[in-house]
Amino acid sequence: MPTAVEDKDAIREVLAEYCFQLDDGRFAEMAALFTEDGTWDTAFGKATGRVAIAELARSLRARAERAAAARDAFGDEYRD
Questions:
Q1: Do the beta carbons of residue 78 and residue 51 sit within 8 Å?
Q2: Which residues contact 73 (CB under 8 A, 6 or more apart)?
Q3: For 21, which of 30, 39, 65, 66 could close a Cys bridge (C-beta 3.0–4.6 Å)?
Q4: Per residue in 7-62, pLDDT tens?
């Protein structure tokens, strides 16, 4: 049976992998860290299942990129 320290290390590894994959735009790989029926519940949306989680992450990235482009074009007065 793993120790508490080993459990914490395993959790840190999964969290780090989640962050790296999300940051790199590897949404299917990020979603694969969830169980088949897992739910990703964010301030910007909620998705259940790996395919839906990957799609939500992809759509949130696209939204963030559009907002960044609008801020670049319109300056600080732009609000998304």
A1: no
A2: none
A3: 30
A4: 999 999 999 999 999 999 999 999 999 999 999 999 999 999 999 999 999 999 99
Site of tokens 């992450």: 57
Residue where the block lists tokens 């590897």: 26
Which two three-digit tokens encode residue 41? 């519940």
Is the CB of residue 54 less than 8 Å from the CB of residue 31? Answer: yes
Q: Which range marks the domain in which residue 45 is found?
A: 4-77
CATH number at residue 20: 3.10.450.50
Number of domains in the chain: 1
Token pair of 23 as six digits: 């940051």
Please, which residues have CB within 8 angstroms of residue 39's CB and are 6 or more apart in sequence?
Answer: 46, 47, 48, 53
Beta bridge partners of 40: 47
